[in-house]
Amino acid sequence: MATPKKFHTLVELQQKEGKLFEVFGNLTQPPNWFHSEYLKCPKAVNLEAWLVEAIFGLDGEHIPHVECVTHTLLHVNRWNPEGEAEILIFGRPYYQQDVSEMIMNLADHFRQLRMQSSEKAATQETGTQGSPAKVPETGTQQPPDLEVQETGTQPPTKAAEDPVTRL
């Protein structure tokens, strides 16, 4: 089992009561919007490790931006590079819920992109790309039983030849 990959924002502290977390990294002090009581009840989101990298970038390069915008702190534990990862979200409960939903929506988006790219690669590999179906344009085609001659090319009618009706 691989050791969890640690990102630069939080570090785990062992306490008698269990696991608590402390703000860590290049911050001299926690942001003014973050209070220590938010460290007590993190919300956990479990995802595949590749999705965590797709969402937050390699080595979590986008985590500080997400934390700043969402007013939450994130901690990512990765048990196995090919397996599962756990994201702990610290902050106000309704912010935790919003960030959790955002992460799950992004995960669905990246899963769909991966599925589409694998389907596209499979169709290119087999060479069975279908041609698009021919759809007639509405209102631009004439019905086949109606004959319309162009103006000026019609033969003169009898009424046009009669000098009395011509006037």
UniProtKB/TrEMBL annotation:
Entry-linked Pfam families: MOEP19 (PF16005)
Region named Disordered: 118-167
A GO-annotated cellular component: cytoplasm
Domain of life: Eukaryota
InterPro entries: KH_dom_type_1_sf, KHDC1, MOEP19_KH-like
Bias (Polar residues) ranges: 118-131
Record keywords: Cytoplasm, Nucleus
Gene Ontology molecular-function annotations: RNA binding
Intracellular or extracellular location(s): Cytoplasm; Nucleus
Domain KH-like RNA-binding, residue spans: 30-112
Family to which the UniProt record says this protein belongs: Belongs to the KHDC1 family.
Name of protein: KH-like RNA-binding domain-containing protein
Organism: Sciurus vulgaris (Eurasian red squirrel)
